[in-house]
Design brief:
It contains 4 helices and 7 strands. By secondary structure, it is an alpha/beta fold. It has one domain: Rossmann fold (3-Layer(aba) Sandwich). The protein is elongated and about 55 Å long. It starts with a helix and ends with a strand.
């Protein structure tokens, strides 16, 4: 029956569904893999410029070993944080400034993070704000050596899905 409705050009809506399946709008409010890549690039670039890296290298005469532990999704949306973690690891490995390890026992530093989102504004002027919090902790001392928040704002509109 749904197929007949779609083929005939008729439609009906389901109110309150916050997605538009009729178009792949590049300005969509949804978090995308491109957003994850941009966040990872910005966070890794900032982290690798941090004073912690030079200090560790001077003190130990070695390249620091890091592990990307987890980025928890604390938003109400389904977000694939593994993709963000993968991009972050990829950039760190390719930087040749750190060694990325899989075992915590072999690492000098560990990345922890959280992902969150919030809707701001009212009526037609709403935006969704995606926040990625990332911190780097020295395992030996439990000292936070670097912290950064990355944010992306996108227009947010509640739309009805037409069938």
């Amino acid at each position: 029956m749904i197929a007949l409705i779609l083929l005939s050009g008729s439609s009906f809506t389901i109110p309150g569904i916050t997605a538009d399946i009729r178009s792949a709008d590049p300005n969509s409010w949804l978090w995308t893999t491109d957003d994850a890549k941009k966040a990872a690039q910005a966070l890794a670039a900032d982290c690798l410029k941090g004073s912690w890296l030079a200090e560790f290298t001077i003190q130990t005469s070695s390249i620091p070993a890091v592990i990307v532990d987890s980025i928890r999704n604390r938003s109400s949306n389904h977000i694939d944080t593994y993709t963000l973690m993968h991009y972050l690891e990829e950039i760190l490995v390719n930087s040749n400034k750190v060694t990325v390890k899989l075992n915590k026992s072999e690492a000098d530093f560990i990345f922890y993070g959280e992902f969150n989102s919030t809707i701001e504004g009212s009526g037609e002027e709403r935006e969704i704000l995606y926040l990625v919090y990332l911190e780097l902790v020295e395992l030996k001392t439990s000292k936070k050596v670097w912290i950064k928040t990355y944010q992306i704002r996108k227009p947010y509109k509640t739309q009805d899905i037409a069938f």
